[in-house]
Amino acid sequence: MTFAENLQEILEKLLISDKDRAVYTKDAEEIQNFVIEELKKVDDTFREVFNGLSLGGDYLDRVKLNIPDEFDMHMKLKFPINISPERDSSAFIYLNAPFIVASCGRIHRLKLQSWLRDAFHKVFQPGCNFTSSSRQAYRLSYTLEGYGCAHTITAVGPTRQIKFDLVSAFEFTGAQWPLPIPPVTEKVRQEWPWFAVPQNKPKKLKGTTTFMAIAPHWEREMMKRRDNLKNILRLMKGMRDANKMPHLSSYMLKTVLLHEIEKVDWQRDLGTLLVEMWGRLVEHLQTGRLPYYLQNEHNILTRMNDGQLKKCRVASLNLLNRLKMARDSGSYRDCSILFNVM
Description:
Blueprint: H1 3-14, H2 18-42, H3 44-49, E1 50-56, H4 57-61, E2 70-77, E3 84-87, E4 92-96, H5 109-124, E5 128-131, E6 137-145, E7 151-156, E8 161-172, H6 186-191, E9 194-198, E10 211-214, H7 216-223, H8 229-242, H9 250-260, H10 270-287, E11 291-292, E12 295-299, H11 306-329, H12 332-339
Parallel strand pairs: 2-8
Antiparallel strand pairs: 1-2, 3-4, 4-10, 5-6, 6-7, 7-8, 8-9, 9-10, 11-12
């Protein structure tokens, strides 16, 4: 077989069947609905302002590999007052509003997270149980408590474990985008919302009132109808997972491809595209800079520390060389070892 055919066979082995996916997603939906209803019971304000869940991450982009046991969700909050976004610097913004404020009249990110943390504690201390309609009994626990961005719920059952990262979000229209116009079509910006999520600035630039402007639906729409783009992202994720690079997030891999969307012929074969796109990743890691797709002043690699970045540089370059060797040899075995599949 050709290198591209080898990759196609590996890709099919990395993907989970629709039947297996349905088992997890049904339980996951029931668990997240249960958690939200419990939060409404223990906190009157949450009950009044909760405005629905919005899917994020790999599931929104439809590039999830293997067992679907991790879900990224945005908890949309809608307070009965006017909230106006204002640009700070790079991808960061302030939310001006007359509540949960700092002295400057902005929403206080830490107070917002503290309020949500208290509500979660009321539900989960010391823990709680849930049985799904599939008769799976889960023990639920609150593990990451929103000191960063997400409030993480872990559900452990006898045969499966599911994790939920719940991130509070304020929803805005495209017309309210406070940053320079991103490389996203006007049609997409008009039809889909963007979110402000609680995110501190990296390293020494921390503050108490900063949020980050994100637009997962804009990115998803820009990735549609791009032939092999999503398959390349799946293969890059598979290679990363098989070679223990936990600090190289799926969003970083996706960002590499987003920057190449208009430059690349995505109809080319998997082998040619994978070598080229992994090479782009190596270039970004070597320079230590991977601009945020929606605001290129922000470098998303700053989420890694120096040691993590160095490990990713070494590992990614080694994988690129091995990938080229697998291409040149035409050996399925050489190729499959890179993905830890047979």
